[in-house]
Amino acid sequence: MGETYVTVTVTNPADPEQSWQGEFLVDTGAHDTVVPRKHLEAIGVKPESDRVYELADGALVNFDVGGAKLGFLGRSTHVDVLFGSDQAEPLLGVIALQAIGAEVDLRNEQLVLKPVLPLPTLRLPRQRS
Fold it and tell me: Residue 79 is part of a domain; what is its CATH number?
């Protein structure tokens, strides 16, 4: 199986005029999205916290985390992004994929939008008489 890439626009939610666009590797094994630090800093996204993540080789790495708007496949969402090293390959994680309703078409090695998004059963409040 090959790799799937998608063009993603990363926008600073505090200053929507500031954005960066790049090719992201779709990584269904990654929880969050990784963006090279230099691109986040260039558009003014600032770290808000930090988290420890376990890499595929078992190494533990601390990442700065900030919020950004990601746009791809004609949809957008606000998610946490990890500040990767300046040389890091941009990775699109499953939180962003699920947020816009995208899934990987393994046969064609591309992202596709789900035609219908699942929604849990909604319980409406009872009206009092």
Answer: 2.40.70.10
Please report whether residue 71 resides in a domain: yes
- Determine, yes or no, domain membership for 127: no
User: In this model, does residue 110 exceed pLDDT 80?
Assistant: yes
* Across 88-117, average pLDDT: 89
DSSP line for the chain: ----EEEEEEE-TT-TT-EEEEEEEE-TT-SSEEEEHHHHHHTT----EEEEEE-TTS-EEEEEEEEEEEEETTEEEEEEEEEE-TTPPPEE-HHHHHHHTEEEETTTTEEEE-SS---PPP-PPPPP-
* CB of 32 closer than 8 Å to CB of 80: yes
Has residue 123 been placed in a domain?
no
What CA–CA distance (Å, rounded) separates 2 from 18? 32
Indicate the number of domains in the chain: 1
Is 12 domain-assigned?
yes
